[in-house]
Amino acid sequence: MHEFSIIQSIVAIAAESASQHHAEHVSVVEIEVGQAAGVVTEALEFAWEAARKGTVLDNASLVIKHIPLRVACGNCHIPYQPVEIYDPCPGCGDINPEIISGKELRVVAIEI
Amino acid sequence: MCENCGCSEGDGAGYTMINPADNNNRDHVHDHSHPHDHEHPNDHSHDELSHSHVPVHNRISIETDVLQQNNLLAQRNRGYFEAKNIMALNLVSSPGSGKTTILEETIRSLTGSAVFVIEGDQQTSLDADRIHATGASVIQVNTGNGCHLDAEMVNKAVKKLSPPDNTLLIIENVGNLVCPALFDLGENFRVVIISVTEGEDKPLKYPNMFQSAQLCVINKTDLLPYVDFNPDKFKNYALKVNPAIRFIELSAKSGAGFAEWIDWIRKVTSD
């Protein structure tokens, strides 16, 4: 369950930003998680409850924005939205897409 | 990041409380009076207004990659390896694919070459003991509750191991086909190992790992007559996920195909 170490990094990034802005409390932590980022958001939420305890994020809520996987065909370059990363291009059937979005794993903002 | 990976709060994160005195937002400063010598046409009370505690939130944009710290450390490791001409391989797989046996046979086959090993396991030094018996220099990293090695663990382990210039460093990651995929260690090549006793659909089930690897070693081929594993079907699945991945089929036990693996290592270390 690497989501716990991921959430620890999220807590660290958010807490550092809060500290820089002299905030005693953080109310919201906004993150973006891509469909193909390799993390399970339910596990992130589970880990969040434990990881925020005793920190400046103690009462903060975690807002997760899901980013769907979007790719462009490596052959005919049309964009498409695969259900799985390995779904072939609906146009030419090629299976070597370039990822446009969906790998995000980012702390977007905090509210203090 | 996450040296203690889920098992401790000592993650180095700065949780320092700093005096919030320079908050200039008047809505939040309550150590002065709020003069209200004007009419309030609505029938709310003056006290309510002046002591309203409706929270006013400031949104602070961060836009920081969660894995940034790990990736920075991985790049530092990469620079260290490059400067010392160290070839670093990161072996990843499910538990029981035969990573350690491959490693033992690799060290024995690479006669005349110094091999340095970082062993990642949740607990015990059993694997490191096996590698030590081959004569290679080895350091065991126990991740405790952690399910993967990260760049900081490798950074510390390399400092302790202190491999000389022009050597091969093999990192045996924690047996786990999910979590290690996300963590760049600074390696030159990621080698995913699968054994024929596993399902041939593993690449589809665990695409992140197969996507992030450059080479796939198919181990335990001596067992092919006894299992339903179809190597061609497996390769097609892996190529769907990662069209650039290459394959080497071998049996660390019988030695079949092992020369190709050794040749691959010799080639990447001499390039």
Walk me through this protein's architecture:
The complex is a heterodimer of chains A (112) and B (271). Chain A is an alpha+beta fold. In chain A, 26% of the residues lie in helices and 27% in strands. Chain A contains 2 helices and 6 strands, in the order H-E-H-E-E-E-E-E. In chain A, helix 1 packs across helix 2. Chain A starts with a helix and ends with a strand. The model of chain A has no long low-confidence stretch (mean pLDDT 93). Chain B is α/β, with parallel strands linked by helices and 271 residues long. Helices cover 31% and strands 18% of the residues of chain B. A 7-stranded parallel beta sheet of chain B has the order 4-3-5-2-6-7-8, with helices on both faces. Chain B is globular, with a radius of gyration of 27 Å. The relative contact order of chain B is 0.15. At the A-B interface, helix 1 and strand 6 of A face strand 1, helix 2, helix 7 and helix 8 of B. Strand 6 (105-111) of chain A pairs antiparallel with strand 1 (59-65) of chain B.
List keywords for this structure.
heterodimer; A: 112 residues; alpha+beta; 3-stranded mixed sheet; 3-stranded antiparallel sheet; 2 helices; 6 strands; B: 271 residues; alpha/beta; 7-stranded parallel sheet; 9 helices; globular
